[in-house]
Design goal:
heterodimer; A: 563 residues; alpha+beta; 7-stranded mixed sheet; two-stranded antiparallel ribbon; 12% strand; B: alpha/beta; Rossmann fold; 6 helices; 11 strands; 24% strand
C-alpha cells in the first residue's frame, strides 16, 4: 500500500477550497498549457498531476527511502579530504528521487522544474520525513533555489535553477561559531574582487546542514566596519569553483544521514545574490520562513511515523491477557498523538496555502502589474503566512518530540532498545525544536501577533464562517481566555513580563488557531477528523486554561521567584 | 552515434508474492481476482536494460509489447511512465488461454508488424508460470539469435551487442550479432522509478490495441486452439520430513535415485 494512498488525512488536505486559487496563480492562469506536455490545462488536470506526483513520491518512500532509513542511521555520513560522502542509503535515495524526476520541485518549467505549489512540496516533505527524517534535510534543501528564483538575476536563475532541476544539492550557510540564533553577528568576510568581477569569501561557518552541497547560499559581511544585520549580503557559491572545504562533520544525536558540516572558506569565489545589505534583513528572512515550514513538514512526518510505530506495537503487544491498546492509559496516549498530528497538519497545510498564494502573486507581479484586488490579496496572505509560520514551526516540532517520547513509552522497555524504529525517531525529533530557530525564538516571532490580536482576530473571523456547535463554543471560550491573558500581560506595561509569559501566550494562541482549523477540516471531512478534533479540544482546554491560571495572576514581581 | 530500436516484452501477472488463502480456485487454476495484477518483476529488469541503452545512445527508441486483457495496457503505460516511447497491447478473445507456444507466436506476429527492431528484450520468466520459454520461442519464430540469463548489456555497436550473462558458478561475457533476443535475470539492475514529468506529460497516451486480424495472425495458432499444453491437475504439495529418502554415493543408490526420478517423469 502506497503511503500517500494509505493516508487519506493527507489527501484530504490537498483538496482545500483555497486550492483552486492556488493552482490558477501558480500556473499563472494556465499560461504554459500547450507549451510543456506536463503543464496542466485546467484545475482538474493540475490536481490529477499533484495526485500522481504524490503517489510517485509515496512509492519511492515505500520502496527505497524507508527501507534505507535504519542503515542510514547506523552508517551516517563520512568526511575525508575536505569532502563529505553520504551514507550508501542516502546516496541511493538521492539518486532514485532524481530518477523519479522530483528535482526542481517548485521551480519554473523553463528551468526544468515541475512548478509544484508549496502545499504539494509540504506533502512530499511530510512523506519523506515519515520514511527517513534525515533525508528531508538533504533533499528538502533544494528549496533554497526558491530564493535564487525570487531574488537572483536572470543569468543566475538560468544557471543555478537549471542545475537544481538536474539534481544539484543545496545548502544555506548561515550559522557561525559566534552567530547562531543571533545572525546579525555573522562575520564571514566578503570582499569584492573587482578585477575578476566576483566576490571572495573568507571565514568559517558551523553547523551547516548538507554543507558539501553543489550550490551554497552564503550569508556574509560585505560592508566593512559594520557590525549589524544591515552589513550582510547573500552570496551564491558554486562548489565547482573550489575554495570551500569541510573541516569536520558533527557527531550528532540524530538525523545521521544529514551531514552537519564545519566549513572553511578560503578566498572562495562567489556571486552576489540580489542587492548588497539586504542579505539578512530581506533574503534570509524569506529563506528562513521557507526553511521553518520545511522543518514543520519534517516534524509532522516524524509525529506520524512515531504514532504508527506505537499503534502497531500496541495492537500486537499483549499483557495481562489482552492487547495493550485496550487499556485506557495506552489508547488515550495514542489518541492524543493522533490529535496532535491532525492539528499540526491543519495548521501546516494552511500556512503552506497562504505562502503559495502570495509567492505566486509575487511571481506574477514580475511579468505584469497586479490589480488592486490582487495586491490586497497578496498582502493579506503574506501577513497571514508570516503570522502562522512561527506557531507552525514551534508547535509541530514540540509535538514531534512529544509523539516520539510517547511512542517509546508505549513500546515500554523494548522502545529503549535500538531494535525498534521509535528510538531513531526520538533522536531525530530532538533537533526539530532547535534548528531554523528554537521554539523560544518562534515565541519571540509569534508574540507580536499575539499582542496585536492577529491570532485572536483570525480565529474569530474563521469561527464566524462556521456553523454553531459545541466545539465552536468551546473554542470561542478559549479565545476569550487568550484575549484576557493578552490584556492582562499588556496591562503590566513591562517587556519582561511579555517575554516571560510569551511561551504561554504563544501556545494558547496556537491551540486556538489549530483547534479552529481542525474544526473547519472536520466540517469538510467529519469521518477523518471528528475524533481527533474532540481529543484536541480536550488538550487545548487543559493547556489554555492551565496557562490562564498562571498568567492571569502574573505581575512584574512574580518573575523574581525564577531568578 | 548509433541509434537502436528496442522492443520490450512484458507481461501483467498476478502478484504471486501476495498469495493468500483464496489464491487458487477449486479447480486448481489461479484466482486472478484475489491477487493484484503487477508488472512481471523480471520484465522490469529487462525494461531497465532497454532504458539504459536509450540513455547511452540518444535517439534510440523503446517500445513496449504486451498481450493480455484490456487492463494489460497498464503495462504499456508503466513502461511509458518510466521512459519508454510507446507500445502496443495485443488483445483479442482469440488470444485468450494461450500457452507459451501460442504466446510466442502471437508476440512474433506483432513484432513483425512493428517491423523495426535491433533488440527484443524481456524478463527471463514470468512469476505466474515460471516457464522461461516465451523469450527463446520468440527468437526461434523470428529466426533470431538469443542470449538468455542476461545480467547486463555491456556495449552495443551497429552490428552487435555485448552482454554479461549468468552461468552456473559465475558469469560470462558474450557478443551476438543484431538483431537479437535477450532475456534478463531478476538479479540484474532494478528498474528506475516512474518519472514525475512523464507521469504528468504522458498520461493521455492512448495505447494502440491490436487484434489477431491486426497482426495478420492465424487464429488457429492463437489462444487455446494454438496451445498444445493441457493442464491436467494442479496440486498444492506440502512435503513432510518423513517423506524424504536418503541415497548414498554407491552406484546402486545412484541408479535407484535415477529410477525414482524417471518413474515420476521428473527426468527422462
Amino acid at each position: 500500500m502506497n503511503r500517500y494512498k494509505d493516508t487519506p488525512e493527507l489527501e484530504a488536505r490537498m483538496h482545500s477550497p483555497l486550492m483552486e486559487r492556488i493552482v490558477e496563480l501558480k500556473e499563472n492562469f494556465y499560461a504554459e498549457s500547450g507549451k510543456y506536455d506536463y503543464a496542466p490545462q485546467n484545475f482538474e488536470d493540475a490536481m490529477d498531476n499533484y495526485d500522481r506526483v504524490l503517489e510517485l513520491t509515496g512509492s519511492v518512500c515505500d520502496d527505497v527511502i524507508a527501507p534505507n532509513a535504519e542503515s542510514v542511521d547506523r552508517e551516517g555520513s563520512h568526511c575525508s579530504g575536505g569532502r563529505v560522502q553520504y551514507s550508501e542509503g542516502t546516496a541511493q535515495d538521492l539518486k532514485v528521487m532524481h530518477q523519479a524526476g522530483l528535482s526542481g520541485f517548485g521551480l519554473p518549467r523553463q528551468y526544468g522544474g515541475l512548478n509544484m505549489p508549496v502545499t504539494v512540496f509540504s506533502a512530499v516533505g511530510e512523506m519523506i520525513s515519515r520514511a527517513d527524517a534525515s533525508f528531508q534535510n538533504v533533499w528538502g534543501l533544494q528549496s533554497c533555489a526558491d530564493t535564487i528564483n525570487e531574488f537572483g538575476s536572470p543569468e543566475q536563475k538560468e544557471k543555478y535553477l537549471t542545475m537544481a532541476s538536474n539534481g544539484a544539492t543545496m545548502s544555506m550557510d548561515l550559522t557561525e561559531p559566534d552567530a547562531g540564533s543571533d545572525l546579525q553577528s555573522v562575520m564571514l568576510k566578503a570582499t569584492e574582487d573587482v578585477e575578476n568581477g566576483c566576490w571572495r569569501l573568507n571565514g568559517v561557518k558551523r553547523f551547516i546542514t548538507n554543507g558539501d552541497s553543489d550550490i551554497h547560499l552564503v550569508l556574509a559581511r560585505s560592508e566593512e566596519g559594520t557590525t549589524d544585520g544591515r552589513g550582510l549580503s547573500l552570496f551564491i557559491y558554486d562548489k565547482r569553483n573550489g575554495g570551500v572545504n569541510v573541516r569536520r562533520i558533527e557527531d550528532k544525536m540524530g538525523i545521521h544521514g544529514s551531514p552537519t558540516c564545519e566549513l572553511v572558506f578560503n578566498n572562495a569565489k562567489a556571486e552576489l545574490c540580489g542587492d548588497r545589505r539586504l542579505g539578512l534583513i530581506k533574503y534570509v528572512m524569506s529563506l528562513m520562513n521557507g526553511a521553518r515550514l520545511g522543518i514543520a513538514t519534517q516534524s509532522v512526518g516524524i509525529q506520524d511515523a512515531a504514532w504508527r510505530e506505537a499503534t502497531s506495537y500496541a495492537a500486537e503487544r499483549r499483557q495481562f491477557g489482552r492487547a495493550i491498546d485496550t487499556f485506557p492509559a495506552v489508547y488515550q496516549m495514542l489518541a492524543v498523538m493522533k490529535a496532535k498530528i491532525e492539528a499540526s497538519r491543519s495548521l501546516m497545510y494552511e500556512t503552506s496555502r497562504y505562502v503559495d498564494i502570495y509567492k505566486s502573486l509575487d511571481q506574477i507581479a514580475k511579468v505584469r502589474t497586479l490589480t488592486p484586488e490582487e495586491r490586497q490579496e497578496s498582502k493579506r496572505y503574506s501577513r497571514l503566512a508570516d503570522a502562522l509560520t512561527p506557531i507552525t514551526k514551534g508547535m509541530t516540532s514540540e509535538f514531534a518530540n512529544q509523539n516520539a517520547y510517547d511512542s517509546i513509552q508505549i513500546h515500554g522497555g523494548s522502545g529503549f532498545m535500538r531494535d525498534y524504529a521509535c528510538e531513531r525517531l526520538y533522536r531525530d525529533a530532538r533537533i526539530t525544536s532547535i534548528y531554523e530557530g528554537t521554539t523560544q525564538l518562534q515565541v519571540v516571532a509569534a508574540l507580536r501577533y499575539v499582542t496585536s490580536g492577529v491570532y485572536s482576530q483570525y480565529v474569530k473571523d474563521m469561527l464566524a464562517t462556521l456553523p454553531d456547535s459545541e466545539t465552536k463554543a468551546a473554542i470561542s471560550a478559549l479565545v476569550e481566555k487568550l484575549d484576557a491573558m493578552t490584556a492582562h500581560v499588556l496591562d503590566q506595561k513591562e517587556t519582561e513580563v511579555n517575554d516571560f509569559c510569551g511561551r504561554r501566550l504563544m501556545e494558547s494562541a496556537a491551540y486556538c488557531v489549530m483547534s479552529t482549523l481542525l474544526l473547519r477540516d472536520s466540517i469538510e471531512t467529519p469521518d477523518l477528523f471528528d475524533k481527533p478534533l474532540r481529543v484536541f479540544i480536550d488538550l487545548a482546554k487543559s493547556q489554555v486554561e492551565g496557562h490562564a491560571s498562571v498568567v492571569m495572576g502574573w505581575t512584574p514581581e512574580s518573575t523574581e521567584y525564577y531568578k | 552515434m548509433d541509434k537502436f530500436s528496442i522492443i520490450v516484452l512484458a507481461k501483467q501477472v498476478p502478484d504471486t508474492r501476495q498469495v493468500g488463502k483464496d489464491a487458487m480456485n477449486a479447480d486448481g487454476t489461479i484466482n486472478r481476482a484475489a491477487l493484484p495484477a503487477v508488472f512481471n518483476p523480471e520484465d522490469l529488469n529487462a525494461l531497465e536494460q532497454a532504458l539504459a541503452i536509450k540513455d547511452r545512445f540518444p535517439g534510440s527508441t523503446v517500445t513496449m509489447l504486451t498481450m493480455g486483457p484490456e487492463r494489460a495496457k497498464e503495462i504499456v503505460m508503466e513502461g511509458v511512465y518510466r521512459g519508454a516511447d510507446g507500445g502496443y497491447l495485443l488483445t483479442d478473445r482469440l488470444f485468450a488461454g494461450a500457452d507459451t507456444l501460442a504466446t510466442s507466436y502471437a508476440l512474433s506476429t506483432a513484432i513483425r508488424k512493428i517491423g523495426k527492431y535491433d533488440i527484443i528484450i524481456g524478463g527471463r520468466q514470468a512469476i505466474d508460470g515460471d516457464t522461461a520459454q516465451v523469450g527463446p520461442q520468440v527468437a526461434e519464430k523470428l529466426g533470431l539469435n538469443q542470449i538468455t540469463y542476461v545480467e547486463e548489456v555491456l556495449d552495443m555497436d551497429s552490428k552487435s551487442v555485448t552482454v554479461k550473462r549468468v552461468i552456473t558458478g559465475g558469469v560470462e561475457t558474450v557478443k551476438a550479432p543484431l538483431p537479437c533476443v535477450l532475456t534478463v535475470n531478476g538479479s540484474a539492475a532494478p528498474c528506475r522509478p516512474r518519472n514525475a514529468k512523464l507521469l504528468m506529460g504522458r498520461k493521455n497516451y492512448e495505447v494502440p490495441a491490436w487484434t489477431v486480424a491486426d497482426v495478420n495472425a492465424d487464429p488457429a495458432k492463437c489462444g487455446l486452439s494454438g496451445s498444445p499444453t493441457k493442464v491436467k491437475k494442479i496440486e498444492n504439495i506440502v512435503f513432510q520430513a518423513k517423506e524424504s529418502k536418503r541415497y548414498g554415493d554407491s552406484d546402486a543408490d545412484i541408479a535407484a535415485l535415477v529410477d525414482e526420478l524417471a518413474v515420476n517423469h521428473i527426468i527422462g
